[in-house]
Fold each of these.
Amino acid sequence: MFTRSDLATLTAEAPEPAVSIFLPTHPASSDSRQDPIRLKNLTARARDILVASGLERSRAESILEPAIALVEDHRFWQELDEGLALFLSGDGRQHRFTVPIELPEDVVVASRFHISPLLPLLEGDGSFYVLTVTADRVCLYTGTRFALEHLTGAELPASILDSLGETDYENPVNASPPNRPHTGTANISNAQVYGDSPREWRKTRLVEFASRVGAALDRVLAGSRRPVVLVAGAELSGQLKDAHSFDATIEQNPESLSITQLRDASYQSLQAVLDVGRARAQDRYNTLTGRGDSRATGSLRQIVNLAIDGRVEALLVGEGSAESTGWSDPAGASDPVDPSAEPARSTGELLSAAIAATLLHGGEVHTVSDPDGADPRSAGAVLRY
């Protein structure tokens, strides 16, 4: 997954020439056989661009070697998601990202890496946890609207058997003589004489199991403010909700869901919670602009410079901007914008520079339907000061 830390690494480097290669990938379909061919064609295009810029062919092929090697790596092509991004530098450094969004089939050779196709992954919808529980398996995931990642190191009970031991009920009436109780009379029920019935025994175990899962989850998530969604069957979910507070619950056997279905269902169940940050930022922007406060601005060129200075707390991007520009090339995201410079940067270039700089300085980016009450292709910013 592409993170803010990765964004900082890529924008900090200026490895001229910088080669950025993007392509959609299809690991689970017949189109997957075309993906290596697409990469081969893209590397050929990159080589031609490098040679045309004055590099020797052997030097160009040396820079592209990591991408060329992937073409014949059959196992690699079986382990992808929806998109592949490769960043190759003239000094031999390389970065590779498998991402859960479809990327354009493209090559860019410049003095900086072209990172805009990956920026939507960092939009401020927030992240969340998903806990899936059956009697046989307990899993914790960290998720976004794009992907779920299994947290294999989480110290949770693996299953009810792992937590409580043997699960078979043995009716004391049928137990071997040494284990059989010696009290009661023939006209008293088994439950009265010998303890819990199978149903009561099973419920007791489920309650204890849920309690242990809840306690372990408290320890694992201590201090976290991320919302948590529970996915479990009705009986288990009822017991687990008594043991831990969840922001949303999906009463369904998680084993019946693919990882994509689990991600989508979890994200939808938490939509109202995740929208809070976006709504708060938009309300704050509207309030500040409504009273003419200088801590809000809708000037995109001004926003870029303010973001570079680390002053943008929240950037609101109009849906029309995100769709029409694709959050274009943020090359020069760390360079101040001269309003009189010619030729002027496109809206897409300015927008992407603002997005990248905002994220690099710890700000939030939200896509909204109408950031300034007028132009859906515009942007607005709430400033820290």
Amino acid sequence: MVRKLSRFVLVAVIVCCGGVVWSTNIAEAHAGLKSSEPAASSVLEQTPKEIVLNFGESVEVSFGSIRLFDSNSKIIVLPTPKHVVKDGVVDTKTVRVAVPDLGRVAFSTRHRPRQKSRRRSLLDPAHMAPATATRTQNQRLQRARRRK
């Protein structure tokens, strides 16, 4: 009798855990970049007025980032990126950010998009821990700060 009960409990635990894992969605995923303005590896005579990134799927600008670096790997502060609005319709696949006048300097951009997704949580989102940067990102930021 005890053996049957313990098997039942074990099966119930496995089914419950499997149900929780199966029913939840991945909260974050990276969207692929389809095109950009200015184009990758382009050489320009003047600083562009803006950077436009077009992704293959909807992205959430509040969770992603666009970083601009000068030739010394120093971060150039950019305003908050925004979705492109065409004819009153928000294009959630395209992100735009204004670029300050940099003069004639070499620079590079890096982007980290996050696609829009539904997230189910057993916890109230207000009580969830904030997302942290990956180890590689932290190392890059520390190197950039040391160079200043």
